Amino acid sequence: MPEHRRLEVSEVSDVTVVRFTDRRILDVTNIEELGGELFGLVEQENRKNLLLNFAGVQFLSSAALNKLIILDRKVKRAGGKLKLSNLRPEIYEVFVITRLHEVFDIRDDEKEALEAF
Amino acid sequence: MSEDWICTTDEKISSDTGEARRVLDELLASLGKNQWAEEDTFGIHLAVEEALMNAIKHGNQRDPEKSVHVIYKLSADRLHISVEDEGQGFNPEEVPDPTLEENLELPSGRGLMLMRTFMSVVDFNERGNRVIMEKQRSAPSSDSSEES
Fold it and tell me: B105 vs A69: CB contact, 8 Å cut-off?
């Protein structure tokens, strides 16, 4: 089983639900490690449908947005779907400002996101 | 004309993300101590982290011999911060707009935009290796004793 230090990974039917272990995540020191773990879910563990649940995540930088864009490409290439849920309002605003809310499928909560797969 | 600064910092840090985080944490702690609103703090966190990472990664190319000069001053209602690297600088006008349709899915170019969105002032020196930012503190929300 691959190790996930930055992520909590679970399965709900054919969807892999990912939560983040740090509250203040996705900033300078851990972004590379986190990106590697997220990409590994698709490239090494061959998971197709991913739901990233941002509950508890307080902060997100542009470096993290870049990782999410790359992850989205990898998921699409693998024939899967990527959805995001539980973004706090300030983080959702970052997606709106950068128009990335048009690129990603963002849902209010995990239940709604799972139903949308 | 001089402003009452609550705290001031002037230091050169190495091109190391851990050092950047330390400086950022100290700044955030000062904001917290002075009860800046959460949305102001979120924006400052985002903008300052972008500035520091740009300086370390793009400016100094992570060269351990090069340093990043950080100066910030905090008053009761204003933050002034300058971040300077030892790189060649860049022209901010040449950074493509990440919200254009053709750039939407490019994994780059959003840091500068976020800095401009969340800070009151974002300026660069002519060489483009120093960014000066200011944040005016939001007016306190008067959600108590407002009942009529």
Answer: yes
Residues paired with A25 in a beta bridge: none
Look at A28 and B53 and tell me if their CB atoms are within 8 Å. Answer: yes
At residue B9, φ and ψ (nearest 5 deg) are -135, 140
ipTM of the complex: 0.85
Q: How many CB atoms lie within 10 A of CB B39?
A: 14
Write the class of the CATH domain B5-136: alpha beta
Rounded distance between C-alpha atoms, residue B20 and residue B39, angstroms: 21
Does A97 sit within 8 Å of B42, measured CB to CB? no
Kindly report the CATH class assigned to A7-112: alpha beta
Compute the CA torsion angle B139, B140, B145, B146 (nearest 10 deg). 40
> Domain extents for chain B?
5-136
Residue among A72, A97, A102 minimizing CB distance to B114: A97
Tell me the pLDDT tens digit for each residue of A69-114.
Answer: 999 999 999 999 999 999 999 999 999 999 999 999 999 999 999 9
- The model's pLDDT over A1-21, given as tens digits with 9 standing for 90+, comes to 567 888 999 999 999 999 998
Put simply, the answer to whether A98 touches B105 (Cβ < 8 Å) is no
pLDDT tens, residue by residue, A21-52? 876 655 566 788 889 999 999 999 999 999 99
Report yes or no: B18 at the A interface, CB cutoff 8 Å.
yes
- Size of the A and B interface in Cβ pairs below 8 Å: 58
Q: Choose from A62, A69, A91 for mutation: most chain B CBs within 10 A.
A: A62
Question: Which H or E element spans position A7?
Answer: strand A7-12
Task: Indicate if the alpha-carbon torsion angle B80, B82, A66, B20 is positive or negative.
Answer: negative
